[in-house]
Amino acid sequence: MRPARMRTRFSSFTWLLIPEKFSDAAKRDAIKGFVKWMLKDGQNYTEQLSYANCRKEVVAKEEKALAKVQ
Hints:
Elements (H helix, E strand, L loop, with lengths): L24 H15 L16 H11 L4
Helix pairs in contact: 1-2
């Protein structure tokens, strides 16, 4: 096995199909909160799990899409 400093980190996108409208506000808020955590604070865990961080452009697009969820 190659030393950690020589390993390449591979990541791929995971698609989440989230409806734009929820009848259950608690469910909507829980889902939005979790996705926001993944895009911000959750990025702090990527290195120790051998994943790459999301690019800022990707995070910005996801935040824009998440703002449409009501």
